[in-house]
Specification:
Blueprint: E1 10-15, E2 21-24, E3 40-46, E4 52-61, E5 76-83, E6 86-93, E7 102-103, E8 108-114, E9 124-132, E10 148-153, E11 159-163, E12 176-182, E13 187-198, E14 212-216, E15 230-231, E16 235-238, E17 243-249, E18 258-267, E19 271-279, E20 282-290, E21 297-303, E22 315-321, E23 324-329
Parallel strand pairs: 1-3, 10-12
Antiparallel strand pairs: 2-9, 3-8, 4-7, 4-9, 5-6, 5-8, 11-18, 12-17, 13-15, 13-16, 13-18, 14-17, 19-20, 20-21, 21-22, 22-23
Length: 331
């Protein structure tokens, strides 16, 4: 098979400096609705800086003579990453199944359509392209467009979805994505994965050359959690406190589909106890509230004085709030 751009292929270039998004579809005959004979069409996408190219198909039909899951040399759409200035074939598409989204490995992407003389009606595809900087992750606050780091705050929403880059398509190679959750003082983070398929072999470490997902209650590594890879039907994690981190790491080996998860900020109920004592100056009521997450204790003591009690000199009411002592004087 010839290299991209040779053999008389027609090339169309889309640059993010001129167009941010649009649609692509092969040219058909106005009268028959068929491709021209022996069609070869190149679609080149050129982004700027940290931009990546995402392709989402809405229609796809390139029949194969070899079967529904096997592509020949004709009626195919080939996907190339641009690696160190050279085209690298990463996927060949054909058949009637709608392909999953495609995300470029860098700022450039190349698609090559090859069609045979054996034209049939209703053949072709339609795809929408986007130049983006969010790695195909639609939710979360991203401080730096060149980094795959997203923040999720309790004061913005109590529940939402997170996903790997380009989900449900393959996630990029050589990428590190951080998902950071920030809850309230009495919150913890509950995460339930509805889909999990990360390329790798347990224990998902460097010796197995695996991609992996890491969980942590800290910005640094948390020994409480192992690294996760492979396929999981049910996976639920919960933080110990208000902060939680999820990190996905991929290498340059094989590609996986990634993950999708529902996160929820849940508040721990505050336990309240009361104790009443009778002092010489009146009734003392103490109230304590303890958080099961942090073990913090907030104390408040109020001393009330009966009106019938004779008060001498200056001391009237003493109020203790936390560790602050306030002394009021009476006339």
């Amino acid at each position: 098979m010839e290299a991209p751009g040779t053999g008389g292929c027609n090339r169309v270039v889309f640059s993010s400096s001129r167009i941010r998004n649009g649609s692509i579809a092969p040219s058909h005959s106005k009268h028959s609705g068929l491709f021209p004979s022996s069609l070869c069409q190149l679609y080149e996408f050129v982004g700027d800086g940290a931009e990546r190219v995402q392709i989402i198909f809405s229609e796809f039909r390139l029949p194969s003579t070899l079967g529904p899951t096997e592509c020949g040399d004709t009626d195919i759409l080939m996907v190339y990453y641009i690696v160190n200035g050279r085209e690298e074939l990463v996927e060949t598409l054909c058949g009637d199944t709608l392909p999953k989204p495609i995300l470029s490995d860098g700022s450039r992407l190349l698609l090559e359509l090859r069609s045979s003389y054996n034209n049939t009606e209703n053949k072709g595809f339609t795809g929408d392209f986007f130049f983006l900087t969010n790695f195909g992750i639609p939710n979360g606050f991203q401080p730096n467009q060149s980094e795959c780091t997203f923040h999720y705050f309790r004061n913005v929403t109590s529940q939402g979805w997170i996903q790997s880059p380009n989900f449900p398509g393959a996630y990029p190679r050589n990428i590190i994505c951080n998902y950071l959750f920030h809850g309230g003082p009495n919150d913890f983070v509950h995460v339930r994965f509805t889909y999990f398929d990360i390329e790798g072999i347990r224990p998902c470490d460097e010796d197995t050359a695996s991609d992996y997902v890491e969980f942590s209650n800290f910005v640094t590594r948390d020994r409480k959690y192992a690294m996760y890879c492979g396929s999981w039907r049910e996976l639920v994690v919960r933080s110990d406190g208000r902060f939680f981190r999820i990190t996905m790491v991929s290498n340059d080996r094989l590609d996986g589909t990634g993950f999708r998860a529902l996160y929820t900020f849940e508040t721990v109920p505050v336990e309240t106890t009361e104790r009443t004592e009778v002092a010489s100056m009146g009734k003392v009521t103490t109230t304590s509230a303890a958080s099961r997450l942090h073990g913090s204790l907030s104390l408040m003591a109020l001393i009330t004085v009966p009106s019938s009690l004779a008060i001498t000199n200056e001391i009237g009411i003493i109020s203790i709030i936390g560790i602050v002592l306030i002394k009021f004087c009476l006339d």
